[in-house]
Amino acid sequence: MFPETRVVHPIEAESFRRLRARLDTSRFPPLTRAVVERVIHSAADLDYAQDLVTDEDALEKAHAALHDGAPVVVDVEMVAAGITRRETVCRLKDATSGPGLTRSAHAIRLAYEQVGPGALWVIGCAPTALEELLTLDAAPALVIGMPVGFVGAAESKAALRESGLPAVSNVSEKGGSAVAAAALNALLYHPVHPLVHQPVNHAAPQSVFQPVSQSEETS
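Now predict its structure.
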């Protein structure tokens, strides 16, 4: 069963039909496929097929935590606006900047003080928010780290992958609130019954279409 009855608009159904006609995602395990398709759908950008990095085991655990009621924290209200059927925590309005601390980073500190460990974190705007999260002992259920920008975005996402935390990220400088929210929505919309799929190798996170090596990330 789905967690809630969700009526899919015919335009959305047709959009996904066209996406699958142009890109074969059937080879991927269920949650990876759900995240890939919804991120691509949100941006109309097939390049995310090579850019996304995730791990099915991490997604399965995060999916269970999300549907068990784990808090969802976002870095900006634009991400919150894109997440449906779930209240989120965003402390940006309460945050202030200071020496060596951006307002976005302070908001992450405030949010962690509020929710504690075990939350799902969705960062789609500020690289400094993701950098700050990596300094905390947040023990997240999942970090969706997809900040956008030419300064610090790719580097912060590389640091997330190197941290070993359960994560969804992308290699390039692109990203943003819409795609980050879409990745979380993919987990929200996915059925809550046990997932059945072919065994896959979960030894290390990979790009959903091809392995991403250290040299490729830094080139």
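The longest strand covers residues 120-123.
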